[in-house]
Amino acid sequence: MSHPVNELTAYLDGALDPAERAEIESHLARCEACQAERDRLVAALALLSRLPPAPAPSATFEQRFYARLATEKAEARERRGFLDRVAWRWLAPGLAGVAASVAVVLYSGARQRADEVFLAEHIDLFESYEAVASMDVVDRPEDVQVVEHLDELREGRP
Amino acid sequence: MATDPDAALMVAFQGGDETAFRSLFEKHGRAMVAFCHHFVRDGARAEELAQDVFLKVHRSAARYQPSARFKTFLYRIASNHCLNELRRGEYAARRAVESAEDGQGEPTDPDSLAGPAPTPEENMLATALGEAVEKLLGQLPEKQRAAFVLGRLEGLSYEEIADVLDTSISAVKSLVHRATVAAAAALAPYAADGKEALP
């Protein structure tokens, strides 16, 4: 095994699995260079445990935090109120327009379906070009031409 | 997570219990100031950053998953916030000035430090160690610094550090090792015997 110097900190922190740990201990038992490095790290860790406590926060730390929290909550309420007002002023008319458009589309669709049912029930009328012309339901020239030649289609003529 | 009382408080806060949030702040707020201080080395700014962190916790409560330890959730927000703070230009500039002034500052008065110290010698050693570590932290790359603070100074496990920094455990091993080797070099003058080793 090469010198496991990169694993020594994890070894000292107890972060290796048993097999890795046994391997490092076996190496340390016969490698003076790694023993020296381990001792250097152990000394550093011992010194780190003697660090002074971090400076205490100021006496007004909590008070200032709750003041900031209150301000933030008030701003959030104000933002929500503004968004509600914007929604009613601008979005509501838009939504009403969309609803009206949908209603028109649905009504047109229903009316178109009713026309199609009427045509299906009275298809015999379309055999007479004169009747179709008088009903004023076919307005495009190509449709008029088709109706005019319906009898030819029935007889299978080209 | 049933075994984490802080997670239970966070869940209560998610349900609208503001007193649960206050309990979390009272429990972790001061420790958070110390954590932030390791990054910015400025008491007033550390307090502001710690407050920012708890405001973020308050805002992002809905995103908290009870399966995660609250401490991990808190330190993830805090680490990201402090690292972002360090990336701002003013800290880079300040570090450059501090590096130029190394060894020229006034020595810290041991009597001004908080915490019990049985003897003046131990008190002076602790002060000198604190200054050496603060200087070291200012020189470490961001991720090493975060891993070192979380592991060595806040006592998080490698697994927790990996979770906080959103990285692998093997990456954490490497980060902590390199930072600890740097600490061993920085603290070598104090290591001969501890008490008598003041340079």
Largest interface: A-B, 31 and 47 residues
Q: How many E strands of chain B?
A: 0
Q: Could you say which structural class the secondary elements and strand pairing of chain A correspond to? A: mainly alpha
**Arithmetic mean of pLDDT of chain A:** 81
DSSP helix count of chain B? 9
**Overall structural domain count of chain B:** 2
Low-confidence stretches of chain A: none
- CATH architecture identity of the largest domain in chain B: Orthogonal Bundle
Q: Helical content of chain A, roughly? A: over 70%
Gross morphology of chain B: globular
Biggest pleated-sheet summary of chain A: none
Report the end-to-end length of chain A measured between terminal Cα atoms. 94 Å
Helix fraction of chain B, binned, reads: 55-70%
What is the secondary structure topology, with strand pairs?
The complex is a heterodimer of chains A (158) and B (199).
Chain A: H1 8-12, H2 18-30, H3 32-48, H4 61-121, H5 129-135, H6 141-148, H7 150-154
Chain B: H1 5-14, H2 18-40, H3 43-59, H4 70-87, H5 89-100, H6 120-139, H7 142-153, H8 158-165, H9 169-187
Helix pairs in contact in B: 1-2, 2-3, 2-4, 3-4, 4-7, 4-8, 6-9, 7-9, 8-9
Describe this structure in words.
The complex is a heterodimer of chains A (158) and B (199). Helix content of chain A is 73%, strand content 0%. With 158 residues, chain A is mostly helical. Chain A is elongated. Chain B is mainly α. Chain B folds into two domains: 1-105, Rna Polymerase Sigma Factor, Chain: A, CATH 1.10.1740; 117-199, Arc Repressor Mutant, subunit A. Chain B has helices at residues 5-14, 18-40, 43-59, 70-87, 89-100, 120-139, 142-153, 158-165, 169-187. In chain B, helix 2 (18-40) crosses helix 4, helix 3 (43-59) crosses helix 4 (70-87) and helix 8 packs across helix 9 (169-187). Chain B starts with a helix and ends in a 12-residue tail after the last helix. The interface between A and B is large, with 31 and 47 residues.
